């Protein structure tokens, strides 16, 4: 079994963030729960702790969560992002979905729904680490020698008759 995930809650309403954290503490699969009240704190915590899952509000004191989501996509950030926001307009929803959010939860969030999302995210993360990533790594180790060019023949072994 892999190590539990670190989770970052990016939410400027401190009591709400603390309620989310308290609820999440009872869900298996999460080892550390971090809180950020704005984008600057979130960026610092993402850089330092590399959370496997980020709960991201859209409306924050120093900007919009969707902008941070774009930054994460450009950086090929490997963790999942769940949007947790009051923004229900189709433009924001579509933009977040195009950026690959794991889920989009509209406030007020039903904790049963949040729990389902977090459980699925943790399970997918474990499947990736335990099953897919090692198989991909093994496949690459097998393919790389076949794709390498032989300096004597200037051919790839896999293509040589």
TrEMBL record:
Superkingdom assignment: Bacteria
Naming one, the record's GO cellular component terms include: cytoplasm
Which sequence positions carry the modification called 4-aspartylphosphate?
57
Compartments, record wording: Cytoplasm
* Tagged with keyword Phosphoprotein: yes
PROSITE patterns given in the database record: RESPONSE_REGULATORY (PS50110)
Q: Response regulatory domain location, by residue?
A: 6-122
Keyword Secreted present in the record's keywords: the answer is no
The record's Pfam families line, in alphabetical order, gives: Response_reg
Named from the GO MF annotations, one term is:
DNA binding
Q: Which InterPro entries match?
A: 2C-system_Tx_regulators, CheY-like_superfamily, Sig_transdc_resp-reg_receiver
Q: Which UniProt keywords apply?
A: Activator, Cytoplasm, DNA-binding, Phosphoprotein, Transcription, Transcription regulation, Two-component regulatory system
Q: What is its main location?
A: cytoplasm
NCBIfam families recorded: PRK10046.1
Q: What is this protein called?
A: Transcriptional regulatory protein DpiA
Origin organism lineage: Bacteria, Pseudomonadati, Pseudomonadota, Gammaproteobacteria, Enterobacterales
């Amino acid at each position: 079994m892999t190590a539990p995930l670190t989770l970052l809650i990016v939410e400027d309403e401190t009591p709400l963030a603390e309620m989310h954290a308290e609820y999440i503490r009872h869900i298996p699969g999460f080892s550390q729960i971090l809180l950020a009240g704005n984008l600057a704190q979130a960026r610092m915590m993402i850089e330092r702790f590399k959370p496997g899952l980020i709960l991201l509000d859209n409306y924050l004191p120093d900007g919009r969560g969707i902008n941070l989501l774009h930054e994460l996509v450009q950086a090929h950030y490997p963790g999942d992002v769940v949007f947790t926001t009051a923004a229900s307009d189709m433009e924001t929803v579509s933009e977040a979905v195009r950026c690959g959010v794991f889920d989009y939860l509209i406030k007020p969030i039903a904790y049963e729904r949040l729990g389902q999302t977090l459980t699925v995210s943790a399970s997918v993360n474990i499947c990736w680490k335990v099953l897919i990533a090692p198989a991909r790594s093994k496949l690459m180790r097998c393919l790389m020698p076949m794709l390498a060019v032989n300096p004597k023949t200037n051919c790839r072994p896999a293509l040589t008759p």
